[in-house]
Amino acid sequence: MRVRRVEKRHLAAAVGEEWVDPDRRPYVDGETAYVPVREGFFCDAEIPERRPYRGRPFQMVGDTAILHGERPTAEEVAAIVAWRRPACVLHLRTIDGVRRIPEAEVLYGEAHPVRHRENGLTYHLNPVEVMYAAGNLEERAHMGRIVRPGERVADMFAGIGYFTLPMAAAGARVHATEINPVSFGYLQENIRANRLSERVEAVCGDCRRHLTGVYERIVMGHFDAPSFLPDALSHAVPGTVIHLHAVGDATAAIWEALEATDYSATVDTRKVKKYGPHIWHVVHDVELL
Ligand SMILES: C[S@@+](CC[C@H](N)C(=O)[O-])C[C@H]1O[C@@H](n2cnc3c(N)ncnc32)[C@H](O)[C@@H]1O
């Protein structure tokens, strides 16, 4: 297919041009769009004809393709390489343990730190070292939409900044704690890369030891969050909203933790993604009264 290379941000403006072949779809790879060219017009590259990809679902994190579940076959990997031209293909088997360290197998290329763009923010991470949860994309954007500028927020399990960065970018003052030094290194890099150093105070260590004062919002993005609730509650005031992530319904644990305090609360539950057969990753939004 004869194409012209156009920067992705100029694609929308380019599609109305006379030289664009309206019967073929542009192909976007990273920041470059390959726009099909009509006969008789100049092209600056030739790429194989694109057919719709009907292979196994995968996610792109930076230039790396990631698959979960069953180990992919050689044919499945080859189809992804031909279609998306990733620098690396990884199979992530599990993300277990307190620090959420992935167990990864490299199936193509070499694992390396990537630069991933999401909702206007830049994330640096190495997918074989730290977790990247594609299914939480909407939840991350949601957190950026609901914070109020200037509010004081604790992100108790900050990881590489999936919630910290959108909230800080929306104007919140975020106190981010992360126990895994590797994730913490990426968190610091990502705060700098997005020029959010003035809004984020990041600490490497156990959140239970580093929370200070009171917060208007507390994000608990870890499936063991219910056991950390007494710590969160001791840094809350009436009006504080706690976003507690859980696998399955954790409302009983929430009410039990609240019984030891003077708070009453409203609890709203939102689904984030399917976690297994009949099991959902949910967020309980707990507003203290
Ligand atoms: C599931 S990840 C969440 C990352 C991010 N919030 C998200 O949803 O994508 C949980 C993170 O909490 C960190 N963590 C676990 N226990 C912790 C603790 N006691 N204090 C601070 N961070 C902790 C882990 O290292 C991991 O990076």
Named once each, the bound ligands are: S-adenosylmethionine
Query: What is the CATH architecture descriptor of the largest domain?
Result: 3-Layer(aba) Sandwich
Strand content: 25-35%
Q: What percent of residues adopt helix (DSSP H or I)?
A: 10-25%
Q: What's the CATH superfamily of the largest domain, by name?
A: Vaccinia Virus protein VP39
> Please, how many domains?
3
Which ranges are low-confidence, i.e. pLDDT below 50, for 5 or more consecutive residues? none
Helix and strand element order: EHEEEEEHEEEEHEHEHEHEHEHEE
Count the strands?
Answer: 17
SS element count, helices: 8
- Order the strands across the largest sheet as they lie in space: 13-12-11-14-15-17-16
Largest sheet: 7 strands, mixed
CATH topology of the largest domain: Rossmann fold
Radius of gyration: 22 Å
- What form results from the Cα inertia axes? elongated
What's the pLDDT, averaged over the residues?
93
Rounded to the nearest angstrom, the distance between the terminal CA atoms is 62 Å
Instruction: Output the structural class.
Output: alpha/beta
Instruction: Supply the CATH class of the largest domain.
Output: Alpha Beta
Keywords: Methyltransferase, S-adenosyl-L-methionine, Transferase, tRNA processing
GO molecular function, one term: tRNA methyltransferase activity
Protein name: SAM-dependent methyltransferase
Pfam families: TRM5-TYW2_MTfase
